[in-house]
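Morning. Coffee machine broken again, so started the prediction first thing and wrote up yesterday's gels while waiting. Chain of 539 residues, entered below exactly as on the submission form.
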Amino acid sequence: MKRLFHALIATCLLAPWTAGAAGTDTVPTWSSSIACIVYSHCSTCHNPTGIAPFSLMSYHDAFLEMQPMKHDVTSKIMPPYLPNTSYQKYADMHILSDQEIQTIAAWVDAGGPLGDTTLAPPPPVFTSSVQITNPDLTGRIPDYTVPYTGNDLYRCFVITNPLSSAQFIKSIEVIPGDRSAVHHVLVYQDTSSALLTALDSAGSGPGYTNFGGTGSQKSTLINGWVPGSGVYSTPAGMGIKIPAGARIVVQIHYPVSAQGKLDSTRVNIKYVQGGTSGTRNVSLAPILNYITSMTDGPIVIPADSVKTFHEQYAIPAVNVTILGVAPHAHLVCRSMKAWAVSPAGDTIPLVDIPKWDFHWQGFHPFQKPIKIPASSTLYGIATYDNTYNNPDGPRPLQTVTAGESTTDEMMLFYFSYLVYQNGDENIIIDTASHDAHYLNCQPRLEIVDTTTGPNAVAAVNSDKLIRIYPNPAKTTLYYESAEEVKEINLTDVAGQVVRTATAPERSGQVSLSGLSSGIYFIRVTDAAGLSSTHRFVKE
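Came back before lunch.
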């Protein structure tokens, strides 16, 4: 009987581990399968400097936590990603595939075997390394030691913008000083210099405390950071406008566990190069909100009750392009959903959060921009549970109303949008089904029989071991491959090939000279005809 050991399986998708023709079970091991999944999808938070309460940086770490790990991944509590990806697809989805979940469960059920350690990827190293290495604007908050208050803290820090003319942000990166102290970050631009100065100087120590925003009505949200976030870049020809003299305000959520820790978070910004003429302005605003668009408000949730509220907004007679959505609510909320209905009656899904969690909210860019036809209507719905069934609700139970405090409630849907231009809906932002694997690692599985029975494998991995760097790249993109490379193609977000090169070596470089700043894809094809595609940003 023919045997094949350590067959590569595409993108962590493993063949079933039931008994094969020889009657021997195939079981995932840490080295062959689980290390790749954990290092790719768990260790970004579960590391010594991460926000998670324990590390998953080794076999020993994972073995000690394997039963809770199985529970959390099969319950889809972890990784903490809120949107329903069957309703809409987003860029940079922080989720596990069903096969990855099944693989972890099978490993735990088998007792957590270690396997052949030579097959395991090396543990990742987490630092505060910078991706935008040559920013046009960099702002660092003063060293700040989180005080002992017994409560979560929302602290705002004002960063001066030295530029005297308006600019458009092309890329923005938030770098937490201590990732174990920072839960999430919101970045605003604001032109009310006098008010910000007054707020900043009123309290003691660096910055000032303010929940639910910056305390200024002129603040406009431009970006955010949650664990696992990287550089955010706008599509080609688009940017986020920063008015002349506007200041950057960084609001940082420090959880109770951060008290006593020192933070020095900073923001790196890269502007659109070559002037601002012709750049399309991307706006971010709570178009659906509980103040102007609620149809059955105000938000009042009596003690021991469950209530649902609705919002709607009529889009003017102009086509709109939506790049992403960020729902926002507080602790009593249990679910949120938004969609659009065109004048023709077509429903356009935008976001569905079936299990809202205040602690893990974020911005969700679409894999492709979504066109909303003129005169469409946006709809939002949210359900709030103010009963003892909600562990995050007030204790003792009491009426909850709209407000800025954590114990109050909100119902907001922020949209990143701009006026539609022909072809916007064909721009490709991302194509991945979930986060890229660490070092492009590929789980391996010991397979008893590859020709018959439930363990049959028709083909080996189609996503070869490819590493590209740096990302973002400025003038040169480097590649390393586990296999002989035959051809390399670069495509833009519209799918057009912008550069082709033959590459008979396993490592080399591709010149990016002449390419405009933006998002691109590199497709690497090996001698066997198997291809791997990866996204990168050209600065």
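The CA atoms of residues 270 and 322 lie 22 Å apart. Going to sketch it on the whiteboard this afternoon.
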